[in-house]
Write a structure and sequence with these properties.
CATH architecture: Sandwich
Largest sheet: 5 strands, antiparallel
Order of helices and strands: HEEEEEEEEEE
Radius of gyration: 25 Å
Strand content: over 45%
Oligomer: single chain
Length: 164
């Protein structure tokens, strides 16, 4: 009888202690893009043309983590559009993906944060279009800025450009 009573008391104490603990819940990191819209041939005050992508995004599971958003260009769809460059010297020409990166801070370091009415843009000259008229596919891809893990992407947006 004494053993049963001790066991019951120990169980009640453990139940009390465990019930007062807050679970350490972590959520999968995720970015959901909304209201994505592509504007092409937007001129700056000097007449230089650029492509502008407007968007909003909701992030979850990002406590104390910032986000990086890449604007990636593909042509054809599913194939990274690349250009050749020997800008950095060296003997050969290097392949570079056509993309633009922008960092966004999780200012309050909270699990969830929202980016509303943001833009990311790229000069038309940085697109390096292929010869002839082609349809290009653009999407935004979000990464955790600390781990470089992809956490989400937008739907594709398209534009047509002619290269010489």
């Amino acid at each position: 009888m004494k053993t049963t009573f001790r066991f019951s008391v120990v169980m009640m104490i453990m139940a009390f202690l465990f019930s007062s603990l807050k679970p350490n819940v972590t959520y999968a990191q995720k970015a959901t893009f909304k209201n994505c819209r592509l504007e092409t041939n937007v001129q700056d005050k000097n007449g230089k043309k650029k492509m502008v992508c407007h968007f909003s995004a909701d992030f979850t599971g990002m406590k104390k983590h910032d986000a990086q958003i890449y604007m990636e260009v593909e042509c054809p769809k599913g194939t990274t559009h690349e250009y050749l460059s020997n800008d950095y010297g060296g003997e050969g020409r290097l392949r570079y993906p056509v993309q633009k990166v922008k960092d966004f801070k999780n200012k309050n370091k909270t699990d969830k944060f929202v980016l509303n009415n943001k833009i990311i843009w790229m000069w038309n000259s940085d697109i390096h279009p292929k010869k002839g008229s082609h349809t290009y596919y653009v999407r935004l891809v979000a990464y955790d800025a600390q781990t470089y893990k992809e956490v989400g992407h937008s739907n594709y947006m398209t534009f047509t450009m002619t290269g010489k």
